[in-house]
Each structure stands twice: as C-alpha cells, then as structure tokens.
Amino acid sequence: MAKKVETIGVLTSGGDAPGMNPAIRAVVRKALSQGIRVKGIYQGYKGLLNEEIEELNARSVSDTISKGGTILYTARCSEFRTKEGQDEGAEICRKHGIDGLVVIGGDGSFKGAQQLAARGINTIGVPGTIDLDIACTDYTIGFDTAVNTAMDAIDKVRDTSTSHERCSIIEVMGRNAGYIALWCGIANGAEDILLPEQYDYDEQILINNIINNRKRGKKHHIIINAEGIGHSTSMARRIEAATGLETRATILGHLQRGGSPTCRDRVYGSMMGAMAADLLIAGKTNRVVAYKNGEYVDYDIDEALAMQKELPEYMVRVAKAMQI
Predict the structure, then answer these.
(1) How far is Cα of residue 24 from the mean position of the Cα atoms in its chain?
(2) 235 near 249, Cβ under 8 Å?
(3) How far is the C-alpha of 96 from the C-alpha of 84, rounded, in Å?
(4) Could you tell me the mean pLDDT of each successive run of 10 residues in the chain, 324 residues long?
(5) Is the Cβ–Cβ distance between 80 and 46 less than 8 Å?
(6) Positive or negative, the Cα torsion across 132, 137, 138, 143?
(7) SS (H, E, C) the chain
(8) What angle do CA 62, 19, 269 make, to 5 degrees?
(9) 87 in catalytic set
(10) What is the pTM of this model?
C-alpha cells in the first residue's frame, strides 16, 4: 500500500509561461482542501538544491491567477543534470518532509522529475511551456497567451508595413518547434511562414513570392519566421538587396512569455495543477498530466518523453493554401 502523502512540494522550471501561477494556485488549494501541506520551492531545481523552500497556505496564492510569469520564479540548473545533484535534490526533499513533488515546466524539467521519481520522491509533471512541443499532450500551459500576444503584435507590424509598403519579417518564439509560427501565420494572414520542421532555406522562393505579389498590386509582405530558423535581420538585408523592397526584421522575443494569462491558460492551468495534486494524493508517481482528445489524462513520464510530436499535416496544408 502506497504511503500517504502528507506534504506536497511545487516548483516551476525552465522558461516561464503564462498560466503557471494558476497551476501553482490549484496545486496549493487542492492539496490544502484534502488536508495536505504544501511547500513552494523557489528558483526551480536550483532553489531546491539551495533549499529555498517555504510553506504555502491559501493566502500565499491569493490574487495570483491573473498574474503572468511565476510567483515561484524559475532558473536553469546545470548541477541538477548530474547524478550528484539529483541525489542531493532527493535528500533535500526528504529533509523538508516533501513526499510528493509537482514540477511545472517543459520536457527538460520532466527529465529532472523522472530522476527524482527514480530516487523515491513521488513526482508529477505538469506541461508548462509556450512552445506546445510536448508530444504527449495536445495543449501546454502558456501557449494560448503567447500566441495571442504574438498575433496582436504582428497585426500592429502589418499596419506600419502597409503604410510604408515594405516587407516585414517577424520572428516568433518556439525554440525548434513551429507551432507559434504556424498559428500566427494563419491567424495573421502571413504571405510566408517559415517552420523549422520544413524550411529548406531556399530564400529564392521568398524573393519570387515578394516580386510576384508586388506585380499583383500587394502593398506589403509579411513573413513569419520561427525562432528555430532565426537570423531574421540578415535575412531581411538579403531580401531587400534582391527585391529592392524595403525590408525590416522584428524579433518579438520574450514579449511572448509575459502578460496576464488568457482564460484558456487560467482554466487549463488550474485543471492540470489540481489533477497533479490528486495524482500525488492517490499515491501516483513518475507521471505527467496531459490534455488529450478533450480529456485531462496522465502518462508515465518515461513514455511521455519517448513520444515524438509533428506539426498537424492538414493545418500546414491549409496555411499554404491561404498564402495564395
């Protein structure tokens, strides 16, 4: 029979994402409603190793559901990638009476959770990343806010691009995943969308598209470029030299990580955080919460990390058709 969980720890790791605070809030309040203590771990795995740990109550998470970022802060931690760091992290959990841990972050954060679970700490992962690149889940906390922030910014760039009759290359985040670029490309009506999963680096195609559109009377040209391709500034210089059309690069950067989470991120974050607490209370470990086919489910972390994710084929075909 699984040992009853008495104290749950919660941390956020890796890049911050809007909706992490609703998830933290849900972990805290769901656990407290079941008589379970909760301890917040600040600065992710780095804070765990430094024992930056504090008990949380219902008031600790009041008025946080609408805040962007993460109230627990986050950091990268190379030390925790080592066996020694992972051993120390597990011992620190035991020292502070943490017998269940919720890790909110991306696939790198889940690898840390996996190692803690292997060392006897009941651990549950919650997918929090704007990149939407975790294969086991149809949704990751933060994506909706990030893509709406990017969409709004691109609309504004389009306005000035039209006024000056120029080409604009707008670079969005996503690491090596093209989900933000694909969604914005469709939502913003971009003339070209460059996706890391498919781009062949043939800029002549872009140049031909710009020239042909100008001949048809198009006053501007919007290119959405994914972070995984990058080099937007040098690309703009080359396109301007080849077409004679003024071309500017705009890199949206970390703007996309900030801001108050959308309703979707607040609700999904709350549901996933609550489910993580429930799984720990039920004695589960080495699991990751996911949203799949309209349901909140959970997977073994080993299984989840082994999955591969691809861009939706039909969505890519639609995007290309819309660029005519």
Answers:
(1) 15
(2) yes
(3) 19
(4) 83 96 98 97 98 98 97 95 97 97 96 96 98 97 98 97 95 96 97 96 95 90 97 97 96 96 98 98 97 97 94 96 86
(5) yes
(6) negative
(7) CCCCCCEEEEEECCCCCCCHHHHHHHHHHHHHHCCCEEEEECCHHHHHHCCCEEEECHHHHCCCCCCCCCCCCCCCCHHHHCHHHHHHHHHHHHHCCCCEEEEEECHHHHHHHHHHHHCCCEEEEEEECCCCCCCCCCCCECHHHHHHHHHHHHHHHHHHHHHCCCEEEEEECCCCCCHHHHHHHHHCCCCEEECCCCCCCCHHHHHHHHHHHHHCCCCCEEEEEECCCCCHHHHHHHHHHHHCCCEEEEECHHHHHCCCCCHHHHHHHHHHHHHHHHHHHCCCCCEEEEEECCEEEEEEHHHHHHCCCCCCHHHHHHHHHHCC
(8) 90
(9) no
(10) 0.95
Q: Are strands 221-226 and 192-194 parallel, antiparallel or unpaired?
A: parallel
Q: Is the dihedral of CA 174, 142, 278, 77 positive or negative?
A: positive
Contact 320, 48 (CB under 8 A): no
**Which one is catalytic: 16, 99, 131, 265?**
131
pLDDT number for residue 2:
55
Choose among 279, 280, 256, 276: nearest CA to 268.
Answer: 276
* Token pair belonging to 163: 């006024």
